Amino acid sequence: MNDILSEKEYQHFIMDRLEKDNGYVIRKATDYDRLFAVDRGMLFQFLNSTQPDEMAALRKIYKDDLEDTIVSFINAEETKARGSLLDVLKHGIEISNLKLELMYTKPATDFNKDLLAKYEKNIFSVMEEVWASDKERIDLVIFLNGLAIMSFELKCNAAGQSYEDAIFQYRTERNPKTRLFLFKAGVLVNFAMDLKEVYMTTKLTGQNTFFLPFNIGNGKGVNAGKGNPTFKDHYSVSYMWEDILTKDTMLDLISKFMFIETKEKVDELTGKAKKTENIIFPRYHQLDVIRKVLADVRENRTAQNYLIQHSAGSGKTNSIAWLAHRLTSLHDVDNKIIFDNIVIVTDRVVVDRQLQKAVMGLEHKAGLIRVMDDKCNSADLANALKGNTKIIATTIQKFPYIVDSVKNLKKKNFAVIIDEAHSSTAGKDMAAVTKSLGAGDEVSKDVEDMISKEITRNGKQSNVSMFAFTATPKSTTLQLFGRLNTKGQREAFHIYSMKQAIEEGFILDVLANYTTYNTFYQINKEIEEDPRCKTSDAKRQIARFVELHDTNIAQRIEVIVEHFRQSVMTELGGMAKAMVVTASRQAAVKYRQALEDYINKKGYTDIHALVAFSGKVKFPDDDTEYSEPSMNGFPEDRLTQEFDKDDYNVLLVANKYQTGFDQPKLCAMYVLKKLKGVSAVQTLSRLNRICPPFEKHTFVLDFVNTYDDIKAAFAPYYTTTLLSNSVTPTAIYDLEAKIDAYTVLDPDDIEKANELLYKEKITPKDKQKLTFYFNKTKNMIERYEPIKQTEIVALMRHFVRFYEFLLQVSCFEDIDLHKKYNFITYLLSYINIKHPGGGYDLDGKIKATNFVQKRAEEHVKPDLVAQPVVKLATAESFSLTPAKEERLSQIIAEINSRTGKSYDNDVAVKAMLQIKDIMMKSERLKVSAKNNSEKDFEFSYFDNIDDALIAGLDQNQDFFSLLLSNDEIKREVLGIFAEEIYASLRRS
């Protein structure tokens, strides 16, 4: 028998805390009016104390019928088609031309003493064992000013029950038509709570009721996951009565967070739009991030930037809408408004419609938000920034066009909320944002002064705070927006991790059910001569030849179609869909054709595919011009809508819909393209959406990538992402020195060009002079061999990119360097390096045979371990390795060895890299490099190779044994690293 804690004792403990700590009124269940879900005593106590004049006037009209009239009128407003309890609470009721407020929200400032006094008069009360009907008894019901707003089903783990039993109770024993639970008119939210966890729902729908976790999360950083922490002297769910159920938080939730979301879906049978409604209640991490950001901004005003690392499935759209809305009225400690405008920036071409609806759902005021749609140009955006519209939503692509047109904005403060901060934030677009909003200084005649101010405008602006949301922050994003932690690493201001989202069931783990395939084939020459050509060029042509080979495509399509029909199609009640990720537009066309041919040959009538790619495609032996609309039979803008229908279940894509595509019915992905880093995470994450009420499973068949490579791509973003190094001016000076070593830049030309560039008006004669300076430098570059020209241009491009980033993340200022940056930026547009002799055309000169698609590995249970630390690229990593040439026969032999019978794909490359790492750690080689020429160093290098091979033998036994037994192959394969290792060891 349980004598630790009973459910009843737990119930009384919570009520006691609500009464003593939060000022709740304890009411008897007999005070509840089940017909109207109201506590009349508390309702009229509130109305009489806060609005005595209105109540007196109404009493003269309705006399003894006043209470019944008001209760019935409120009920009618709550239960009518467009009515709701939420609307009644937020906007009150109007009866006989008199306005009655049913809730008072906290004023933005403390200037209005009357409103503050009324806010304090809101009454919160609680009842236990409430009979909602003759068959339904509820553990706890919470009321605001007499109106029922929350229900609780409590379970005690010590008594052998949990929140899951409470959820089962709601689903099976609570009637959604009972007045207390009636959607929109009954309670706003229902909580299933035990001693450890909390779950909630705003809409009961019987067995299909969908509950969301409302937990803090357990652990921090790499250890963060689902659930709640364990405390010595508190229950794990004590935050509910210590924070969430406090009067301030409750009124904040109702007035500033909760809203009714309306979604439209076209009925496939009638063709008419069908509306579905949901009451949105924030999840804990959403409430937490908004409150913490607002508190920090209230204290620091526009001094800081904020990085929000929230996983897919975090409800980012609503979080952005809540943040934008709250920032519009945020006052500092001195009761002064902080931001004049809130700018929501997205990297999508069209601003997210869902985001617009979420913002408007919170507030109905006309003119609150203006969306820069396709019809708006940069001038419209500039005017909006100058105007009084509080929230402006736009695409980042519009910012560069207004850098020079927006003036006098220093007097205004801006909050810039960036949706998906992983992209478009480290280049010229992002620089344009800060330059635009920080513009407005007086124009100076002094060129050096102007440059200094331009540098300042590129960096953090004193009147602009940026709030960047992303699930996958790159190192540059962390440097731009992250905060330093106690260990000197940069991290996000707030984190809701991928690991926690998976554990809480908001997204699926796409690394489960991951199967890799190897493609084997034989390459042969079709010609007798053995021409020399660039390794990279030849490999690229061969890879493309194999990728588009009809036999290869046909074999892969057979695997794809049969897997989809046997393992995927029956998922989600037969509504499951798949995406095929191809490597190019040509591949998308050919795979779609092959799929149609295969299903027609097999007589399958249950697979129908769409294709997605930009532009038009033509093949050398085909006069037909292929495009997405012509192949699908409808315009591009209808694709997502059509693919959502039951008519289609496969989508073949080429660089489209790999990001930002939200289709919950997508269950399988077939990968025919090399994926790396953030791109891999974003592409595969198209699968991770849950699809209630179904228990969705995901499947990935990957013909190109290894499972280890994909795990490595996900590892930095699984929990928290930390930046371990920082960008420094030293790196940019190193790049400058490398460029200067080529002596192609004339300091006098740079000086004169900048004087012209910063003139108020550049004349045609000035343009001729500028052209002369740039062409002169171009001619100097072209004196070098093509390979050296490529090195110079690559260094210059890296210099420009690195310098632009440095300006944004630091207070760095060097006027002479900025002049050089200006000059190189314009110079690069003049340069077009030719590559004589390297472009050998392999068309018709090779053939591929013996194609085999072989299943390699199947991974059912993922074993992903977080690797949270990332690093910024440095100038050192920008060095360019000269292209090497090999005979065509040698290139083909290498490819065949990598994809043939002896070794797994890429084993040769990985083995060589392992050897390189071992050699780099050799003290003997380090001494040799410091004291010998490169040629003499090679003797030591090759003497030490066998030691390195033996040291790594257990990692790659087969391949290393081959090298140990064959000196010729060993020198040929490993000689390519000698120069690089020598240079690195001399510098160390």
Automatic annotation (TrEMBL):
The keyword Ligase does not apply. It holds the Pfam family HSDR_N. The keyword ATP-binding applies. It comes from the Bacteria. InterPro entries: Helicase_ATP-bd, HsdR_RecA-like_helicase_dom_2, P-loop_NTPase, Restrct_endonuc_type1_HsdR_N, SWI2_SNF2. Keywords: ATP-binding, Helicase, Hydrolase, Nucleotide-binding. GO terms for biological process: DNA restriction-modification system. Residues 278-496 form the Helicase ATP-binding domain. GO terms for molecular function: ATP binding; DNA binding; helicase activity; type I site-specific deoxyribonuclease activity. This is DEAD/DEAH box helicase family protein.
